[in-house]
Amino acid sequence: MRNTAIFSIATGLSRVAGLVREVVASSYFATSGAFSAFTIAFQFPNLIRSLFADAALSAAFVPVFTELLEQDRKREAFKLASTLFLLIVIVLGALTAFFMLAAGTVMPLFTGDKFTPELKHLTAGLSQVLFPIVLILGLNGLVVGILNAYDHFAIPAIAPLVWNVVILVLLIGLQPAFHGDDRLYAYAIAVLIATAVQFAMCVPILRRYDFQFTWSFDLGDPRVKRVLKLMLPVTIGLGIINFDVFINSTLGSLVSEQAPRAIDAAFRIYMLPQGVFSVAISTVLFPTLSRFAARGDIDQLRSSMATGMRQISILLVPSAAFTIVLCTPIVRLVYQHGSFGDQSTELVSTALFWFAFSLPFSGMNLLLTRTFFSLQKTWAPTVIAVGGLVVNLIVSLALYKPYGIAGLVVGTALSNAATTFLQAYGLRPLLGGSVEGRRTAIHVFAMTVAAALMGAVTYIVWTAVDSVVGRSLPGQLISMGFAGAAAIASYGAAVLWLGLPEARQVQGLLMRRFGRSR
Description:
The chain contains 19 helices and no strands. The chain folds into two domains: 2-435, no CATH class; 445-513, no CATH class. It has helices spanning 2-29, 33-52, 55-70, 74-106, 117-130, 133-149, 154-174, 184-202, 222-255, 259-295, 298-325, 327-335, 342-356, 359-374, 379-403, 405-427, 437-469, 473-497, 501-517. The radius of gyration is 23 Å and the shape is globular.
């Protein structure tokens, strides 16, 4: 919990900085067609990155690297990492070069008939600037995996904060040098430079652990083959979130030229509690789960996973309720500045409302998937993830015409819910026939009741304060501040009164931290 708290704070600051970055960008570009072009141009290399690099590579690499360290075979572990480093440079370097050259042909395939030829051309041009991040993030994923295997989370958690700050500074500084829709090139250049800075922050930390890079390129090493074998299903599994987002944006371009950006803007808010809580807990627990799996300690593995599931739920269930009841005020406060008007707020808040229902499920999926990965049983969550993607695609295609943006996001929510239950069911035989499902379900039900009460209290408080202070920026901050305080107080009181152990854990951690700070 201490590591999770540190990671959560750093990740939370990063998400807040990212939200500030999005606010500034939205004040320039709102939900314009040009910003939708940037959204698709960024999401496509991000999708490629999720398939071949970063989190996918790290998830396949960490269990094998950790196992070698547990067996005190450090030299072999370093040799494995070095081979993978060179392999990433060759493979992802070639992919990057190909897509940069073929962007003019490839990118228009992912834009609908609502996009003008000018927007299609802009999408291709922006993607050419952004594609090198695939190679950089691939190398970064390997380095972060090494650090996580040593239980080092601080710099990898702080680096995304620096990434967001660098982008923000460069966006503000560079965009006056461009004109019209070409101002989006300032954003793309800022993302590329910031990604290089993020990678540069993590590399020097390897020296603390005496990591020694060697010019080893042994593709015959069975451990290299094992990582690559593990990576194939991991790639598909971890790529599903990005597939979902990319599907929403691509189909959104059939709804209107504003829809891709509106959905992405809502997704940014939706990912704030996701990053602060579930990503933090899952990332910190993953090496621990891998160690228990390597030792064959199934009881501890099951207990750690189940505890993590309930800790994620006690934080994300109220986050979902808060977002559902105040989706429009949240979007208005965050985005409605500069060129961002009432119409954009309506589009984004609609998407955010439906995204909120999938928040707890999406959070639990992260941990369930990593539990499979720690056991090096990667095909089951992959098959489930592909099934979820199919569900999302079918529902989205069926609903986007009659319901627009709402129909697209409902597909994501239903897909996440189905994936959660199927993953939990699939883990049972691997964890001794139990995933503590009954206990978890009872606790989550209690959390949901508490969150429903919190939602009612929150909406009443916000309505009362909003009617008094009005909709100016200070007024919005005051009304949302009172609503947030009411939410924390009412939910905290409810879960403590219900006697949930997870609530006591959080309370104990806060009390210890508060006591130390005094």
